[in-house]
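#struct-pred
JK: can someone run the complex with flavin-adenine dinucleotide? inputs below
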Amino acid sequence: MTAQLAQGAGPDAHTAVSFWLEDAGDDLTPRPPLDGSTDVDVAILGAGFTGLWTALELLKREPTLRIAVLEREIAGFGASGRNGAWCSGELNISVDLLAARHGVEAARAVRRAMYDTVDEVGRAAAAEGIDAAYRKGGALTVARAPAEMPALRAAAAEYERHGFAEHGQVLDRAALDERLRVAGAVGALYTPDCAAVHPGRLVRGLARAVERRGGTLFEQTPVTGYTPPARGRAGRPGRAVERPILHTARGDVRATTLVLAGEAYLTELRQLHRQLLPIYSLIVLTEPLSAAQWAAVGWDRHECVSSFRLTIDYLSRTQDGRILFGGRGAPYHFGSRIDPRFDRDEATHAMLRHMLVRWFPTLRGIRFTHAWGGPLGMPRDWMPTFAYDPATGIASARGYTGHGVATSNLAGRTLADLITGRRSELTELPFVNHHSRDWEPEPLRWLGARYVQLAMMRLDRLAERRGRAPTGRSLAERLARH
Ligand SMILES: Cc1cc2nc3c(=O)[nH]c(=O)nc-3n(C[C@H](O)[C@H](O)[C@H](O)COP(=O)(O)OP(=O)(O)OC[C@H]3O[C@@H](n4cnc5c(N)ncnc54)[C@H](O)[C@@H]3O)c2cc1C
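RT: done, structure tokens with the ligand placed:
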């Protein structure tokens, strides 16, 4: 089990988790924990975006449902309160691959659903009165050297091939410079389907919205496991049915439906241990830039920004004028371990600070005020799962691979439709009841994950030094193809 922050940890311990929680403008004092066993209609593990959107969407559809959300720490403690602020219509799985696996129409439906979701997050937050600093400025994927141009062209061609050309526009150097001035950049791919949000305010606001509609949050309540009903329940009218249970040290919660919404942390549950790989993503944040510094950088339209490196990097501009720079590259930990100590890795944070100044040399000497990180969940085939089994009453949404800010909203709406028995366009999406195969047992999992992580870094360094794009044929690239 993840080491929990000290029981009874006050708001200060949670403020330190990320800038987003510190700046959420909300009282982080934990809500009371579960106090004895109870019985509800829907019990949800996890008060992140997935659990909270699902609760909210269920209550919109059926306002009388009794819903309990069980959260180990506080709402927003996980990736939802720590991320890079990208509410993006892109997934981490290519349309080509989706089309090959599920057919062209299903792949297109996924794209359309994701684009709609970016707008829906803004709409739903506004409707609930949440000031999430939602700003739809699109996203720029920058080619920072000629070696990144083949990847840019391939990405643009993929949009065009599937009839989404306007969602992936190529900008030449001059057009990019008008928006954002990145040292050495030669062009960029612009997609309009991305908004920057304040994830801390969004997730904390969602928790309050769920409460306003009658849901109950129990914080500082770690779930130690779950038990499905002994027999399937379907098709046995009149028989006493057994119900699934969430277990905690403070009592059991019996429910008609369980929703497992713990993303990377689900790996700590015996039944789901190998379903996801917990991968750490780390972030550094600057002090607010001066007007002169912003004039040198540009970035007036507040796009979310990344590059074509194999080792993921992502940037966003905060509402209060700071630059967030995030990246993967922190090591995978043997046995899928998750620990608050892994949230900070000085070598990775130093690299991110260094990279930010390489992107924007005019910011040399800028002060960095925050550094944090957290685990995200990566399924074996990179494909998210929105699952519901009416026979057991167990639902789950997971496996967003670092693209969960928007996808969790889509998941919440889809799970709410599935649980309340509504057929909709969403319940036809290929995420529904998708089963990704398990990751390998250890030590193979650690060997594979570390090999790919280190090889990707080496390929990025080589590409930079030699000015040639990675071939796409190396073992690491083939293993990580998606
Ligand atoms: C550093 C970082 C940067 C990211 N950047 C982006 C980005 O820019 N854009 C994007 O789209 N995605 C990004 N992601 C991913 C995105 O944040 C997640 O996909 C999304 O927030 C997942 O939401 P969730 O509710 O499923 O999981 P989480 O937010 O992780 O919530 C799970 C909750 O469950 C609780 N929990 C877990 N286990 C238990 C238990 N046993 N008992 C009780 N409670 C439990 C946890 O405490 C946690 O609060 C990033 C992730 C990280 C870590």
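RT: quick notes.
Residues 30 and 74 are 6 Å apart (CA to CA).
The two ends are 30 Å apart (CA to CA).
JK: thanks, will look after standup
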